[in-house]
Amino acid sequence: MLQFSSASSSTPDTAKAATAAIRAALEGLPRDKVLLVAFHVTMGHDPGTALRAIRAEIPHARVVGCSCAGVIGRDGANESMRALALMAVAGEPGELSVAFRDGISDENSRAEGAALAEEVLSRAGKVQSAMFIGPGIDIAMDEIISGIESVFGADVTIFGGTASDNMKGIATYQCVDDRVYERAGFLVGFSDPTLHLETQATHGFVPAGVELEVARATGNRVHELDGEPAWRAYTRALGLSESATPGDTIPPGAAGVRLSPELEREYGDSHLLRVITHREADGTLLMPVTCAVGTKLSLMRRDERRIFRNLAVTMKELTTRTGGRRPVAVFHTDCGARGRMMLDRVAKDEIVADMQRPLFGDACGPWLGMYGFGEITVLGGRNVFHNYTTSLYVFTRVTPD
After folding, report:
1. First CA to last CA across the chain, in angstroms?
2. C-alpha span between 324 and 7 (Å, rounded)
3. Residue 124's pLDDT is what?
4. With bands split at pLDDT 50, 70 and 90, how would you rate the model's confidence at 346?
5. Residue 68's closest CA among 78, 60, 76?
6. Residues 6+ apart with CB under 8 A from 39
7. 52, 63, 281, 383: which one has the fewest Cβ atoms less than 10 Å from its Cβ?
8. CA 85 to CA 95: how far, in whole Å?
9. What is the pLDDT of residues 8-64, one digit of tens each?
10. Do 231 and 279 touch, CB atoms closer than 8 A?
11. What is the rounded distance in angstroms from the CA atom of residue 324 to the CA atom of residue 347?
12. Which tens digit of pLDDT belongs to each residue from 112-155?
């Protein structure tokens, strides 16, 4: 059976932070059985230094990680320039497998997703769930998901999301074993039959009354909105100059795609949100998923009361679906814009506490989260890519069939 242990550090020195965190996490696990260490670091840390420090403590384990705008651990959220959090996983070799691919782009996303899944499956035999982390700037995440599902089947739950930087939309980093990449993705397959996974995403945004229609698009590249260059139309609708950067648009710039009535009832919100993290010189903007001509993009605004209300509903649903079982681990992907760009520290800390307390009570268990650029969570029985959400992935222990 897989065992999990997490730790975090706010020490400014990268090597000391990573060493302290991995040593703290390993105290709760049989060191010789540790299979994986997954970590997140903010942009002030050097991810290569963190990798080397972790590997020095546990050289036989696979190590994966990514850059982000902030980390969330069992002690709460930390969005300082130098924050680090990690999760160590111990068990038998057949219970977990790791694959990675470098050079992922919007053009090869489906093929690379399938290749990742094939490699995991070749080592694991059977996969109950899988965590994907990839670059957060310009890949087509719906195509990544479709590629993975083409190998695993659509009934295997995929969770995770995309790395981020300090919300500038310039470059994100992914770490695997001894190297740091900018265009890599990794997939971790979980094959322990005693683990049960529940996922849930929530946002709390409402339409702002402005809608733009995709007039010309190729894959995830939107060339024109309402018949003019997409970036010009988009920034004008936001009240920004056309010279604005993608990072400037992220806090106010949620674009929503209308959900069906059935999915709206399940989701608790009317739209699936999209974040724009990249633009090209000709005014093309890149969506994080493919976007067909005729798609209507509604500008969305946050509703803080709705954010808290939706989170309360989410936690009630998760505790009901887990049957009151105490989690063995929680992974967590939150939108970077839901951190300090959207909420003050008091509200943000309250939100994190409102997530952890219903699941663990007063003493939070293993928890690893990040503020990234996007999240993968089940909606309508399918693996779906989201933006601007809080997405929780709760592992509990069950008796296998």
Report:
1. 15
2. 24
3. 83
4. very low
5. 78
6. 18, 21, 50, 54, 63, 64, 65, 84, 85, 86, 87, 175
7. 281
8. 23
9. 999 999 999 999 999 999 998 999 999 999 999 999 999 999 999 999 999 999 999
10. yes
11. 26
12. 999 999 999 998 878 999 999 999 888 999 999 999 999 999 99
Other C-beta atoms lying within 10 Å of the C-beta of residue 270: 16
pLDDT of residue 132: 98
Q: What is the rounded distance in angstroms from the CA atom of residue 103 to the CA atom of residue 174?
A: 11
Q: Which of 58-67, 301-310, 346-355 has the lowest mean pLDDT?
A: 346-355
HSE on the CB side for 164, CA within 13 Å?
Answer: 34
Query: Percent of the chain at pLDDT above 70?
Result: 97
List the structure tokens of 274.
């999209």
- Residues 45/71, Cβ–Cβ less than 8 Å: no
For the chain, the structural domain boundaries read 3-202+308-397, 206-302
Residue with tokens 């724009």: 276
Cβ burial 99-121 (10 Å sphere, 16+ → b, else e): bbbeebebebbbebbbbbbebbb
Q: How far apart are CA 367 and CA 369, in angstroms?
A: 7
Which residue matches tokens 């939309």?
Answer: 169
Helix (H), strand (E) at residue 157: strand 157-162
Q: Determine contact, residues 145/158, Cβ cutoff 8 Å.
A: yes
pLDDT, position 167: 77
Maximum CA pair distance of the chain? Answer: 61
Q: Check whether 70 has a pLDDT greater than 80.
A: yes
User: Could you give the C-alpha distances from 365 to 3, 76, 96, 328, in angstroms and in order?
Assistant: 12, 12, 21, 7
How, if at all, do strands 228-229 and 221-225 pair?
A: antiparallel
Q: pLDDT tens digits for 241-272?
A: 999 998 888 877 789 999 999 999 999 999 99
3-state DSSP assignment of residue 273: strand
From its phi and psi, is residue 81 left (phi > 0), alpha (psi between -120 and 50) or beta?
Answer: alpha
